[in-house]
């Protein structure tokens, strides 16, 4: 059956629709509603399994064990689904231009601000949305983890400082000798400097510190974003007109 086109129907782009949901606070309502429905469904299932106690003990034990195993497998499947989620799919430059949310009330929150995602779709929604909200916090954590990894690997810190010193020396010599007027010479020196930087980074294990910081910060980001509930964002209060 074919439906005729409705001239009053509006086609709203997905980014605009998501922005409206975010500004209206419906994302938080949808997240909370999904958690409530899952809790009600779990309670109902648990009540049904408890009613099996009237059956013989082997039957009741089998029902309880099956419910527990199914619940564990569901949680494991949700955690494994985090690997397939791209947390940067909806990230924009405007997200980094915003103010950094407060670490205590905004980023960390209270104990009630966390819950296990009830489904893969809820985990995906939380990860993408929380990454937009707390991208500056996650980037700060990466800097902290990278600094800690450099502290644990002093030779990597020395290699990073040496690489930066080489590039500063190249910029100074390029300006002093006027290499901009000799593009061929400047290009050759630039390629040579790039090779020297790669050798220094490889020898001093700078890549190890970067990989360690990326792995730890990515794991923290995915776990925090998936378990962190979507709480309303406090809009800046406008002053009363005089």
Task: Provide an overview of this structure.
Helices cover 71% and strands 0% of the residues. It is mainly α and 242 residues long. It is elongated, with a radius of gyration of 27 Å. The N and C termini lie far apart (60 Å).
Strand content: under 5%
- Assembly context of the chains: single chain
End-to-end Cα distance, whole Å, is 60 Å
Shape: elongated
Summarize the amount of helix as a percent range.
over 70%
Structural class: mainly alpha
In short:
The chain contains ten helices and no strands.
Any key phrases for this structure?
10 helices, 71% helix, mainly alpha, 242 residues
Layout of strands and helices, then pairs:
Elements: H1 14-24, H2 26-50, H3 57-81, H4 93-97, H5 103-108, H6 120-133, H7 135-152, H8 154-177, H9 183-203, H10 206-227
Helix pairs in contact: 2-3, 6-10, 7-10, 8-9, 8-10
């Amino acid at each position: 059956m074919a439906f005729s086109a409705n001239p009053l129907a509006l086609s709203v782009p997905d980014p605009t629709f998501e922005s409206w949901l975010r500004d209206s606070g419906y994302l938080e309502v949808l997240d909370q509603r999904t958690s409530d429905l899952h809790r009600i469904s779990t309670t109902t299932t648990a009540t049904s399994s408890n009613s099996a106690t009237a059956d013989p003990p082997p039957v009741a034990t089998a029902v309880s064990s099956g419910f527990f195993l199914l619940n564990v497998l569901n949680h494991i499947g949700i955690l494994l689904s985090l690997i397939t989620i791209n947390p940067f799919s909806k990230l924009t430059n405007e997200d980094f231009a915003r103010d950094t949310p407060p670490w205590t009330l905004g980023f960390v929150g209270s104990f009630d601000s966390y819950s296990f995602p009830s489904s893969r779709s809820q985990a995906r929604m939380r990860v993408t949305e929380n990454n937009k909200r707390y991208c500056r916090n996650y980037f700060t954590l990466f800097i902290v983890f990278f600094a800690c990894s450099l502290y644990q690997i002093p030779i990597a810190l020395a290699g990073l400082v040496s690489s930066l010193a080489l590039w500063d020396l190249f910029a100074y010599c390029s300006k002093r000798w006027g290499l901009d007027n000799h593009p061929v010479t400047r290009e050759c020196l630039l390629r040579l400097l790039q090779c020297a930087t790669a050798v220094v980074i490889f020898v001093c294990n700078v890549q190890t510190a970067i990989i360690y910081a990326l792995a730890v910060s990515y794991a923290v980001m995915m776990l925090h974003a998936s378990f962190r509930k979507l709480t309303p964002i406090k809009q800046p209060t406008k002053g009363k007109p005089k």
